[in-house]
Write a structure and sequence with these properties.
It contains no helices and 15 strands. It is an all-beta fold and 213 residues long. The strands form 3 sheets. Strands 1, 4, 7, 8, 9, 10 and 13 form a 7-stranded mixed β-sheet that branches. The protein starts with 24 loop residues before the first strand and ends with a strand. The N terminus is likely disordered.
């Protein structure tokens, strides 16, 4: 007796799947909004496959990507002393960008702001946000953004659902879905000016900003 199944398309690849056709890769540089190198960022396919980290000057080289459009995660790990437990705790913040991989290496230059904060009092969730943009082969990318709140690993959250918004230059805050893996973005040709992503959890509000020229 046959069994029905569905094979997802190879485009928008998030991991190395059944696509045996290899594309090229990405080479580039990541800085913060002040132009300082973003070092030790993890860059790669979110769910397994090619991955690397940025060097001391913010540069990276990522190869062996599936042919087509890939979802590339840029994740920053931040370690702090949790005031609730007195122990070191590491949480991450990051964005996902869409990048095509064809016959050659694409050149990407990115400005990314990613932050993680201490949990608010009586709350075990650590708010975070991330936002960034840049150029891909000389063409401006959308503004990519995300935000949320992370509970300690293996511990149930006591913070409820975080509220995350994105505010375009001169616009009102618009709600977006919290968490990673969303590749939420402004669309092509983002409006010049300051873009702000904001996370609110347990009464605490934190923001990350970038300015598009």
């Amino acid at each position: 007796m046959g069994v029905s199944f569905w094979v997802p398309p190879d485009h928008d690849a998030q991991f190395f799947s059944g696509n045996v056709r290899l594309g090229g890769g990405l080479s580039g540089n990541v800085t913060d909004t002040a132009g300082n190198p973003q070092t030790n960022l993890t860059v790669g396919l979110p769910y397994g496959g090619a991955t690397t980290t940025t060097a001391g000057d913010g540069s990276f080289l990522l190869g062996l990507l599936p042919w087509g459009t890939n979802l590339i995660a840029l994740m920053k790990s931040i370690t702090f002393v949790d005031s609730g437990t007195g122990s070191n705790r590491t949480e991450t913040a990051g964005i996902e960008i869409l990048a095509p991989a064809t016959n050659s290496y694409g050149a990407v230059q990115l400005k990314v702001e990613a932050q993680v904060w201490q949990p608010p009092p009586a709350c075990n969730c650590s708010p975070w946000c991330a936002i960034g943009f840049g150029t891909f082969n000389g063409v401006q990318t959308p503004v990519y953004f995300s935000g949320g709140a992370n509970a300690p690993k293996g511990v149930p959250p006591n913070c409820g659902q975080p509220q995350v918004t994105i505010t375009a230059p001169g616009g009102a805050p618009l709600p977006i879905k919290p968490g990673t893996g969303r590749h939420q973005n402004s669309g092509p040709n983002p409006t010049p000016g300051m873009w702000t992503v904001t996370t609110t959890v347990c009464g605490q509000t934190k923001s990350c900003t970038v300015t598009v020229p």
